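Protein modeling request. Please complete all fields; requests missing the sequence field cannot be processed.
Requester role: graduate student
Desired output: 3D structure, token encoding
Chains: 1
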Amino acid sequence: MMNKFLTGVAGAALLSLPMASPLSAQSVSDDASVFGARESVRAASLSPSGNQLVYIASADDQGEAVYVVDLATAGAKPKRIMLFTEPMADLTGCSWATETQLVCRAYISVRDASIGEYLGVTRMFSVNSDGSDLKVLEGRRSMRALDDVFNGGSVIALDMPGEDGKVLMTRTYVKEASNNTRLANDKEGLGVVAIDLKDGSETAVETPDKNAIRYVADDTGQVRLKATQMRGASGYSEDEIGYFYRTPNSKKWEQLSRLELNAGSNLGFQPVAVDAKTNVAYGFEDGTDGFTKLYSVSLDGAMTRTPIVVRSDADVDQMLLIGRQRRAVGASFATEKRQIEYFDPDLKALAASLSEALPNHPLINIIGASSDESKLLIAASSDVDPGMLYLFDRAARALNPLLPLREAADGKAMGAMQPISYPAADGTMIPGYLTLPPGSDGKNLRAIVMPHGGPSSRDEWGFDWLVQYFAARGFAVLQPNFRGSSGYGAKWFGRNGFQAWRTAIGDVNDGARWLVSQGLAKPNGLAAVGWSYGGYAALQSQALDPGLFGAIVAIAPVTDLAKLVEDSRKFSNYRLVENFVGKGDHVTAGSPAQNAASFSAPVLLFHGTADQNVDIEQSRIMAKALEKAGKKVELVEYDDFEHDLDSKSVRANMLGKIDAFLRAELGN
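Delivered output (668 residues):
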């Protein structure tokens, strides 16, 4: 199945590293092309020796190319070893299994005619670093299989001590019909196998568990954690995840914790990594103050619990795992800017010195390392810098730039993202970010309020291509972290941005009023623009104050909460979606399509027809409701594109249309 999507090009001509020249002020079409361009580097990995780099680059309009670079040879150029051009598929990552072999992951969107929905399929494959000997790592396939395999597995350990050339990865087992044969597979669920990349053979490591959803290996390649989620008689997933652990060299699973999934907030200890040397699991759990913290729990039977990274002003929500062994070295949280608290004092000092030395004091993210961690792969970016990939040699104390992360935007003037806060109607101070056009005096501008997606998410300081496009076009952009956003503790998240929509949308609208009160925006120059939940929030703003915004742009928005729940009935997460949205009057009152008659502002909608996150029918329902109510609306559909509209031509087209729409409705 996968081979037809992959084109090996071993022996292709060497390619030069791309270089960019500074860009001057340009037309709307040029700005749309610059900021709508896909990332130059989408993923990267360092070989065990640290002497080779593999990276995935955007190719053509929506494809990907895989390049390998010999970093040990001066003047060596990247060599393209693979081209991935299937329109409804993406190459999402490649890692070094050995010094000569790679393991990669592909994501494919397929339409299931039986339910009329697009479904995501993943597949893993191995390939030599010269592009030869491609093998799909999908295990046994049979016409007798009683179900399809959508989850093609994931690598949980690149190194297995004493097993050179083998990787540890999860495998989905499906039962087979046993009529007229004794050889049918009767196993089902998620297990773990060791795969020999030389010949593609595999050895079972973990017996399949029909309730398993995840396994975690420690930094020595031993499977130490298992997560399970039961399904009821109806086939729907329960709202609880069970976590189990093993003591070193044991095969017996012991109960570790239970995680309750409660309308978007998680209650209980959620382990994410195991450190073999100290024999602890690191994981997250809410403290008594409602803020998520990082703890360690000993895996020796005593389960001694120790707080590791604790904040009382922000959720600690990400772990930093580096190297081939995915060693736990720190955790991060976002206040005005994301910060990392390192366990490793050397890495802490290194990250601080690099951020201080590089222009614009960028965020430093260690994304790869050699086996001995003597060489580190670092991505550095800031609000006004799309980012650069660097190689740091710890012995030589040398930092060498490798590749720009967004070549098209290099040299383009950017607007600084300033952390701000403003008062909501009830006096609560709402945090957010304000970006002004480069060189602007910040007075009486046309302005966009841009709520984030989720709603279980938040905006953070850093480069944002959509924000920077609008800034380049002369708009001020406010990104509010309204109540219902994550990252600020359980109290701030509340009942989430759907169940407590009046609070969340009220905060969004109060941000627009603040822009006017500060003299930043013209009263008649306000627009709301959002993607996904952000699109929902932009539309729903009309239910509270129809005269506030002069234009509404919604990309892939939710518009009917009851339909959102009903559509999920076809999938195993139906109960979770139902609990997240909730029941009651807010389901109707909180649906933009049910409030079409109250709309005053013209609306521009965008949606991909293959969207798996938010069905295209959500935008079609909204457009029909507005048309029936006699309101001004336009829906732009992009055939066979998913939620993120990951195409430079589609994004450029969309950005150009948005700019023209806003100028027509708000004036120049």
